[in-house]
Amino acid sequence: MSMMQEDHEASSVEDILKEAVLNRHQILYLNYKCLTEFPEVLYSAVRQDGQSLYDHVERLYLKRNLLETLVRMGRCQLCWF
After folding, report:
1. DSSP H stretches of helix in the chain
2. How far apart (Å, rounded) are the C-alpha atoms in residues 44 and 32?
3. If DSSP codes are grouped into helix, strand and coil, which group holds residue 61?
4. What is the dihedral of CA 57, 80, 13, 58, to 10 degrees?
């Protein structure tokens, strides 16, 4: 299973998502990012074959953000506690 190491607070969400696509990480950590909205790119970005760029993501950690709503992403488990 490929997962990102828990990132530093200084890492940008964009950098984390780019690395996730390049390395096909299955677990992403977006903790402490002050997100107020779920990153749209996670459910809207598609490859040329029509598949999601993030269809390989199995878990997404969102601890200590300011999200009011969550979006279901295929088989991905959302962890926000």
Report:
1. 13-23, 41-44
2. 23
3. strand
4. 0
Domain ranges of the chain: 13-79
Which candidate, 61, 74, 56, places its Cα nearest to that of 33? 61
pTM score, whole prediction: 0.81
Contact 39, 69 (CB under 8 A): no
Helix, strand, or coil here: 65?
coil
Q: How far is CA 34 from CA 3, 67, 76, 77, in A?
A: 21, 8, 21, 20
Q: What is the pLDDT tens value at each position of the chain, 81 positions in all?
A: 666 656 556 689 999 999 999 999 999 999 999 999 999 999 889 988 988 899 999 999 999 999 988 887 777 887 765
